[in-house]
Amino acid sequence: MDLEMRIIDALKTVYDPEIPVNIYDLGLIYEIKVNDDNSVYIKMTLTNPNCPVADTLPREIKEAVEHVQGITKVDLDLVFEPEWDKSMMSEAAMLELGML
Q1: What are the domain boundaries of the chain?
Q2: Which CATH class is domain 3-95?
């Protein structure tokens, strides 16, 4: 399994505490970039800027990815543009939430 897939698997272990879906399928991860030195850049958002886990969720995500074997460094960028909405969820997430 390549490094990016292992990163995605790690991201799928982190859940938004208010919605019972992992943050990857929820659509909170906008970009994953693996550099030649195995450092990782992740651009992410939250379901809303006033999310009660705004301080803890990014740290939890960073720690989950840092535990992937081979990763040398994780840089995480929290953005609010584009604004997250339900259309960013995967089909699996929509199914899990009864939206399909």
Answers
A1: 3-95
A2: alpha beta
Q: CA nearest 28: which of 41, 48, 13, 44?
A: 44
Find out whether 47 and 33 touch, Cβ atoms under 8 Å.
no
Q: How many CA atoms lie within 13 A of 18 on its CB side?
A: 9
Q: For 41-77, write each residue's pLDDT tens digit.
A: 999 999 988 888 888 999 999 999 999 999 999 999 9
Global pTM reads 0.92
Write b or e for each residue in 45-63: b if 16 or more Cβ atoms lie within 10 A of its Cβ, otherwise e.
bbbeeebeeeeebbeebbe
